[in-house]
Amino acid sequence: AAAGDQDSAVYYYLESIKYDPKNSMAYDNIGMIYEEKKDLNKAIEYYTLAVEFAEGTALMEPRFSRSKPLMLRAECYLRLGKKDLACFDFRKAEELGNGAAISKRILNCK
Length: 110
Prior knowledge:
6 helices, 110 residues, mainly alpha, single chain, 0% strand
């Protein structure tokens, strides 16, 4: 996506958060935008908020809605060379039933 489109998206997600400060999906989406922009520390900040506020939706159980931003945050930690933090998140996502976390943990956390 073009930088202007990403900036606009972040703006509108932040506006939505003003009305719903616990909107975990908005935080998750902002994290993905920052990750795409290679600002991994900012992405981690928003993934952390997504984990904190994840309560699930009608389509997704809380444990799975928490595991997605955990997995994304873990990937950022790996890219920053913070293996211990990444492995912690992979284990937590695995505990929440995320099958992909098992293989990521096995591959990266020996």
